[in-house]
Design goal:
Order of helices and strands: EHHEEHEEHEHEEE
Helix content: 25-40%
Strand content: 35-45%
Number of domains: 1
Structural class: alpha+beta
CATH class: Alpha Beta
CATH architecture: Alpha-Beta Complex
Distance between the termini: 34 Å
CATH topology: Cyclic Phosphodiesterase, Chain: A
Largest sheet: 5 strands, antiparallel
Number of helices: 5
Length: 187
């Protein structure tokens, strides 16, 4: 099963983000838009995991959650990976606060004890709001940079849990389910 660690947002914030991204959805872009119920911040992708390894991962997450205090996560701004002119992913940004960076680092260390290699790429927290099909040329996204520059959104969500999530991939896109939800309990 495909598994990852994520921060899920309250429904109210997901709906606000969805409304803020309407300007993008109204454009004729070759993008498959993510359902707002699936908006999340991925902290660590674990890949295909045998079910018997889930308890070890949950133990590692429990240790991290037990030493992490709840915090507020600031969100805002829109962009794209790898570039705005030929995107694969359209996203809303998440401020990489010290609390969020510490949580990410603690997860990397905790999960390395379970045999997962530590991530070496820079951490760019974000919410994926759409995925572009790679076959489209950069011309299909002409003007996207100007549209994104005009869009404004600022929001804050309380981070009180981390979730171990399962990804179900189908022709219609990915669907997610929560395997475990671990409450942040640090002081």
């Amino acid at each position: 099963m495909r598994v990852f660690v994520a921060l899920n947002l309250p429904k109210k914030e997901r709906q606000r983000i969805h409304r803020a991204a309407r300007r993008l959805r109204d454009e004729d872009l070759p993008v498959r838009w993510v359902d707002p119920d699936a908006f999340h911040v991925t902290l660590k992708f674990l890949g295909d995991l045998r079910p018997d390894l889930i308890p070890d991962v949950e133990d590692a997450l429990l240790r991290v959650a037990g030493s992490t205090a709840p915090f507020a996560m600031a969100m805002g701004g829109f962009g794209a990976f790898p570039t705005i002119r030929k995107p694969r992913v359209l996203w809303m940004g998440v401020h990489a606060s010290p609390e969020l960076r510490c949580l990410k680092q603690d997860l990397e260390w905790g999960l390395s004890e379970c045999g997962f290699p530590a991530e070496t790429r820079a951490f760019h927290p974000h919410l994926t709001i759409g995925r572009a099909h790679p076959s489209h040329s950069a011309g299909a996204f002409r003007g996207l940079d100007e549209i994104v520059a005009e869009m404004a959104f600022e929001g804050t969500a309380g981070v009180r849990t981390i979730e171990l999530m399962r990804s179900h991939v189908s022709r219609e896109g990915a669907h997610y389910s929560v395997l475990s939800s671990l409450k942040l309990q640090g002081s």
